Every structure is written in C-alpha cells, then in structure tokens.
Amino acid sequence: MKEPSIKPDWQDLDFRRRATAPARREDHRSYFGVAVTIFLATALVYPWYAYLVNSYLIAREMNAAMQVVNSELERASQAMERQANASAQAAAASSLRRRVAGVSVRGTSIVQGQRVVVVTLGEASLAEAKTKICQQAARYFRQSLQGERLRIQASNGNRPARDAGAVICD
Question: What is the pTM of this model?
Fold first, then answer.
C-alpha cells in the first residue's frame, strides 16, 4: 500500500504579527553613555562616602583609645590613692611614736590606797600614752600593774601638777 503524500499547501498559511515587538538592537554608543554616567556618579559620590567611612573609623578608634587611657588613669589614680593612704598611715604612726616618746613618768605615790603617777605628757593624749605610763609606773612600783587603776597627774614644771584623769593598765 502506498502512503498518501502530504503536500504542503502554502497558500492556506496565515502569518500573524507577535503581540510584543522584538527587542530592537541597541546601539553600542548607548552602553558607553550608561557606563560614563555610572563612572561619573561614582566619582562624584565616592569622596563623601570615603569621608563618612573615615570619620566613623576615626571616631571608633578615638573611643577605643579613650577607654584605654581612662582605664590606665583609673589604675594610676587607685595606685596613688593606695600610696597616699599608706603614707598617711605611716605619718600618723610616726607622729604617734614621736608624741609617745615624749611621755615620761616623773614620780609615783600611793595616796589613800590609790596609786598616783605624775607624768609629763608633752603632746600625747592620755589614751595614747596609757601603755608607756603603765610600763614606766610598773618599774617605779617594782610590780605588775595589770588590772590596776592609776590616777594620773600631769606635770606642770615648777607649778603644782594638774589632774589628767585615770587609766586602767592592761
């Protein structure tokens, strides 16, 4: 059997235009114009962008440096404060030793059953000189005065002694 041949009938064909027009071919000159525009825009914007970025980075570095400086200053301040406190304590101890060094017992007596001690206090207070007075009075009385109450008279040179109070020896 012989196959029927199909002969195209070109007259029945209908050519229609597309709904969208094909993209027209661009001219390379228009690409060059776009590239020049982008380049010029970048060249104009870049200095301000670079300035803003550098300003931000400098500010951040300055803040970091200030934090380091502040922490160093705080440490130095604390060290100076500790040194000042130690110096003040040493000066106070030295002053106390100097004042107590000027304390001396001038004489002792027993009046109506009470021990009386005549003392040159100098610049020291009675509380500061208590230990030294008790030690020297114990040598004068030649016995331990622990727990004993001593009546203290402050020496006034050639004038009569004045009452300075009482201490209980530890």
Answer: 0.52
